[in-house]
């Protein structure tokens, strides 16, 4: 599973990256978490509000900091 955190480096973006890593640690296995800060790549996803959570190329959430449990539910959906 590939998880991307879209954001330009604001506090919420960095926090979401940490939350995503905590969620991955809970489920175990090999999954990658990548921070995407390139504006063009973010726009390619059609995201206008950051932070955004992308799971395997599908935008799951935009514009808010999620909890670990919220990230887990989006990953498992």
Task: Note the main attributes of this structure.
77 residues; alpha+beta; Glutaredoxin; 4-stranded mixed sheet
Summarize the structure in short:
The protein contains three helices and four strands.
List the helices and strands and how they pair.
Blueprint: E1 2-6, H1 11-27, E2 32-36, H2 39-44, E3 52-55, E4 58-62, H3 68-76
Parallel strand pairs: 1-2
Antiparallel strand pairs: 1-3, 3-4
Structure description:
By secondary structure, this protein is an alpha+beta fold. Helix content is 42%, strand content 25%. The chain has a four-stranded mixed sheet. Strand 1, helix 1 and strand 2 form a beta-alpha-beta unit. It is globular.
Strands side by side in the biggest sheet: 2-1-3-4
CATH architecture: 3-Layer(aba) Sandwich
What is the CATH class designation? Alpha Beta
Q: In sequence order, what are the helices and strands, one letter per element?
A: EHEHEEH
Determine the number of helices (DSSP H or I, runs of at least 4 residues): 3
Outline the low-pLDDT stretches.
none
Tally of separate domains? 1
Mean pLDDT: 94
* Helical residues, percent: 40-55%
Strand content: 15-25%
Predict the CATH topology.
Answer: Glutaredoxin
Spatial gap, N to C terminus: 12 Å
